[in-house]
Amino acid sequence: MNQLNHVAIIMDGNGRWGLKKKDSRNYGHLKGIKTVETVIKFSLQHKIPYLTLYTFSTENWKRPESEVDFLFDLIRKSLKKKIDQIIKQGIKVNILGSKTGLPKDIEEIVRMIEKKTINNRKITLNLALNYGSKEEIISAFKRLSKKRNKEINATNFEKELYTNNIPDPEILIRTGGTKRLSNFLLWQLAYTEIFFLDKLWPDFNENDFNKIIKKFYLIKRNFGKI
To answer: Is this prediction's pTM over 0.90?
Structure first.
């Protein structure tokens, strides 16, 4: 049976779901938080050590200012509201992405929550926030190239990535019907099993998650071998 250590998710379709239901993209983002809670609960129950959620990309800044403000307000309120529960559940929160450029209070909140959960061990919840994989790769190469007596190879390079000491995902899930990676974990997904779902993120549920994991366990993973 394949070992499952890390699931990464591109949570696509919130805006479209909201437009269909209430003619508001922000309504979809609000409902998407419930699905996030469902996925975290499922991951805890099934003892998945690492869960990475694509929360806000470097490209998302191109969205209307009102939507960007709503998204950050949602992140702000959700983290503040859930901090005690996160600690109690043994969740370690880790931020993947550049903290530079984030609203000052968001930057303070994420640093606080990382500090308060640093010793938690049940699951590591990686929030890809202000994250772009191309930027991550370029920054990692720049840092490595400045280090004397450090050979440029895959092992040393990976130590400079946001995901240092985190195993590469075995599973990537993207909801919303779109079949692309959208600048997400491009280096780390080299041998990841990818599952694209037509469902929009607020409609994704435990049954969908369970079906994907069952399919994953049946896959013969060769990693270039026969």
So the answer is: yes
> Dihedrals φ, ψ of 192, to 5°?
-80, 145
Q: What angle do CA 55, 101, 168 make, to 5 degrees?
A: 40
Catalytic: 12?
A: yes
Q: Of 2, 5, 12, 153, which residue is the catalytic one?
A: 12
* Contact assessment for residue 116 and residue 87, using Cβ atoms and an 8 Å cutoff: yes
Domains of the chain: 6-218 (3.40.1180.10)
| pLDDT, tens digit, 9 for 90 and up, residues 74-108 | 999 999 999 999 999 999 999 999 988 899 999 99
**Which is the catalytic residue, given 60, 73, 183, 203?**
60
